[in-house]
Amino acid sequence: MATRVELYRFTSEFNTWRYTSADRDIETESELFEAGHGLSRGRIASMGSIHKSDVEIQAPRDNPIVGLFTTSRPESMITTTIFKADWPDLVPKMIWKGRIVGVSFKSDTKAVITNESVFTSLGRPGLRAMYQLICRHGLYRPGCGVNPDHFRVAGDVAAVDGAVLTVPAAS
């Protein structure tokens, strides 16, 4: 009896991450999809409007993809491709493709990766880059031009209260 598994491929300009919903790593078409990253997704629906085909992927907060969005947005776009396959045959069929538009945090341990369909991106003209009042680059990221060493303060932690650290030298 075949078991349905999902394969997730996230691709940026410089890296590719591959994960599976299966309980073991899966190799197919010379790609290794890693198990154990706790991904699950919402429903994929065709609603008659390209703006209603977003897909939300639930992930642990410590997932490497989530980590890319923790302090700022990545410099390059990250595409998401979702495949389905039946174990043990493993002939993947692409069921959805798009790009990550944001990550939100639902709790101390869970995050939601929001993806929009590739058709939404094609149907909406405009710039892909993030623009802010001062600069379009994330702070200290490539292209930012701000040297983090000029803003570094060395000091000892004097107190810890939950997620709040007190460092007198940084006051």
Strand order within the widest beta sheet: 2-1-7-8-9-6-5
**What is the residue-averaged pLDDT?**
83
Distance between the termini: 63 Å
Estimated radius of gyration: 20 Å
**How many H/I helices?**
2
Tell me the major beta sheet: 7 strands, antiparallel
Q: How are the SSEs ordered, and which strands pair?
A:
Layout: E1 3-11, E2 16-20, E3 26-28, E4 31-33, E5 40-41, E6 55-60, H1 64-67, E7 79-87, E8 93-105, E9 110-117, H2 118-123, E10 159-161, E11 164-166
Antiparallel strand pairs: 1-2, 1-7, 3-4, 5-6, 6-9, 7-8, 8-9, 10-11
Give a written overview of the molecule.
This protein has helices at 64-67, 118-123, and strands spanning 3-11, 16-20, 26-28, 31-33, 40-41, 55-60, 79-87, 93-105, 110-117, 159-161, 164-166. It is mostly beta strands and 171 residues long. The strands form three sheets. A seven-stranded antiparallel sheet has the order 2-1-7-8-9-6-5. It has a two-stranded antiparallel ribbon with strand order 3-4. Strands 10-11 form a two-stranded antiparallel ribbon. The model has no long low-confidence stretch (mean pLDDT 83).
